[in-house]
Design brief:
The structure is a homodimer of 158-residue chains.
Chain A (H helix, E strand, L loop, with lengths): L1 H13 L6 H12 L6 H11 L5 H13 L3 E5 L5 E5 L5 E6 L5 E5 L4 H11 L2 E2 L5 E5 L1 H10 L12
Parallel strand pairs in A: 3-6
Antiparallel strand pairs in A: 1-2, 3-4
Chain B binds a DNA duplex (25 and 25 nucleotides) through helix 4.
DNA sequence: TTGACTGCAAAGCGTTTGCAATAAC
DNA sequence: GTTATTGCAAACGCTTTGCAGTCAA
């Protein structure tokens, strides 16, 4: 994916934005992984190379890169957001609410839905990096058993 | 929807939870509207009746009611969350990213998708109150014109 | 040279927490 | 009377902001 990286840099500079080491680092981290990374992960990793990189720079550049269409923001719900380089074709994420396993799926699966929304409601849906929650194959048979501690507030569950 | 309200209260008390004025107020606000309300809106409205209602009570009870399945949490992305009484059949939301208009649609539209995800990936998707973003009919022809101020950070847009 | 960009520190926002006081059962 | 629930205040985690200094062009 090295080519991709230089393409991304070109997209930046040809549009008149400056190529700073911080921006280059962000782009290379994003293009060298095959998943999505959170702002915090990006900051932590960036600091291994440039210890003084600041979080505001990470956020500001992620916003810029997203606006320029070089990077996609994936909203996993619950305030959890991650970023990934904008690849074609788009893909989506099936996130298991039990074991947190994540399945990447092609956008084809959503083509019918997209068509229906357009036909019935005249709505042009952004089918970019959707995240859907549910239960993966393994957890459907063993959900309660596998359930992690995280949520048990019931005073008397009855 | 008064019947619904008393049903909700029954669900609470029969499970051993106490019926406090704060809880009753939350449930009545939620069952008397036909849309979803944010925690903040609920707090503000609740204070008209009980000026001393505290936000932590609103949050704690919304969490309880959600766990009990009486209320659904709708995640609109970008950290924006709203709550509504859990009705059947479920419905979903098409949110226009331009004019913020919201279209409620039936869950039928998603039945095929749900089946495909199950067949292809063995994934049982939570098809509860999804929110999809995109452009509504009116905004597809006039997006740039209608675009609201909110995002214009480009130093030199070129 | 110059203004786009960075680092820093502080604030913003919605949400969560610990705890003593209160009130539903 | 008991203890689930409340109100309060403080802290949380993530993100955004204003500003003075810096460096890519």
């Amino acid at each position: 994916m090295k080519t991709k990286h230089s393409d991304l840099i070109d997209s930046l500079t040809t549009r008149g934005y400056r190529l700073t080491p911080q921006r280059e680092l962000l782009l290379s981290m994003l293009s060298e992984t095959d998943t999505h990374l959170s702002a915090d992960t990006l900051l932590t990793r960036a600091r291994k190379a440039y210890p003084r990189v600041n979080k505001s720079v990470v956020y500001r550049n992620l916003e810029l890169l997203t606006e320029l269409g070089l990077v996609s923001r994936v909203d996993f719900g619950g305030g959890h957001v991650e970023y990934e380089v904008h690849r074609h074709p788009h893909h989506h994420h099936l996130v298991c609410r039990n074991c947190h396993h994540m399945i990447g799926i092609s956008s084809d699966t959503f083509a019918d839905l997209q068509r229906q929304l357009a036909d019935r409601y005249g709505f042009s849906a952004d089918m970019d990096h959707l995240a859907l929650f549910g239960l993966c194959h393994d957890c459907q048979t063993s959900e309660p058993a596998n359930a992690h501690a995280q949520r048990s507030h019931h005073p008397h569950a009855l």
